[in-house]
Amino acid sequence: MAKVINVGIAGFGMSGQIFQAAFLHVHNNFNIKKVFERKSSKSKEQYPYVKVVSTFEELLTEDIDLIVISTPNKLHYSMAKQALEAGKNVIVEKPLCIYPEEAEELIQTAEEKGVLLSVYQNRRWDGGFLTAKKLIEEGRLGEVVDYEAHFDRFVKGKSAKEWKETGEAGVGVLYDLGVHIIDQAVCLFGMPKEVYADIRSQREETLGDDNFQVYLYYDKMKAVLSASQLVKEVGPHIVVHGTKGSFVKYGMDVQEEKLKAGELPVGDDWGKDEEENWGILNTEADGVNYRGRIETERGNYHKFYDNIYGVLTGERELEVKPEQAKDVLRILKAAKESVEKGRRIKL
């Protein structure tokens, strides 16, 4: 009989509900045993079998194998440190923490305790990203010279999550959305040599950043990563140009909207992109040019927890490593420094 991993979730906001609990609930090898909620019992309403607890310490008991931290960013480091020191396997909603120095402390603690530490970077399993990754790896675009990723929205007024608008360290669009597209770029191309950034606060209602462009410079290419909360008419989500061709993808991955609508992540069609949003591939092979739509790879956030289960049972290598999360934080730190100094920052 397959081992079942008992899970404690800290926090039951949007991430805890739709990105964590929904996937853990339908996974045969995980059991949501406890949920830490300070002011409500929403988790009990959705999943009657769970036990709601009012303190984080109540998750640190012998019956819990894995703790998933899905609280505001400023709490990630302290909660993860406490859970790791208690000998618990830990997954932290991105970002892992706010500073790379904190990430290094968490990595060392996990190593000392011999437990798992990972970060919920579900966007590695976005359909559009997987399609671009496949085309690059297959060499159909040649040597990549320019890469762009955009994560744009139109948000009027303050976010319903007021903590995201405070302007304190570790909040704002850069730490919310930027960590996703920076992580994707690092997965594709590795760490850049230099970083340049433009980070702004454009809406009057917010004290935090709501617009950024981060430039990652490599030997022969650059990646431009951007997000804004004031884009009514969105452009392409991913653009890749290479020595043999280009790939342009409009439309975000379908999974988040389905989850927000209350759908459970089940069925053979889960994560399948609408044909109208398939990307355009313009390339050449053997002297023949091809231009047309290419079917989007199926997005599948299930694979994150499939991998976690494989690691906990000794069958697989961890895909989202905490060292990678530290590298993303190094880039974020360099981006902030770039704004302060008005120049590129070497890594």
From TrEMBL:
Record flagged with keyword Oxidoreductase: yes
Gfo/Idh/MocA-like oxidoreductase C-terminal domain: residues covered: 133-347
Keyword set includes Transferase: no
Entries under SUPFAM superfamilies matching the protein: NAD(P)-binding Rossmann-fold domains
Domain Gfo/Idh/MocA-like oxidoreductase N-terminal: 5-120
Keywords, comma-separated and alphabetical: Oxidoreductase
GO molecular function, one term: oxidoreductase activity
Domain of life: Bacteria
PANTHER family in UniProt: CONSERVED EXPRESSED OXIDOREDUCTASE (EUROFUNG), CONSERVED EXPRESSED OXIDOREDUCTASE (EUROFUNG)-RELATED
Family: Belongs to the Gfo/Idh/MocA family.
Protein name per the record: Predicted dehydrogenase
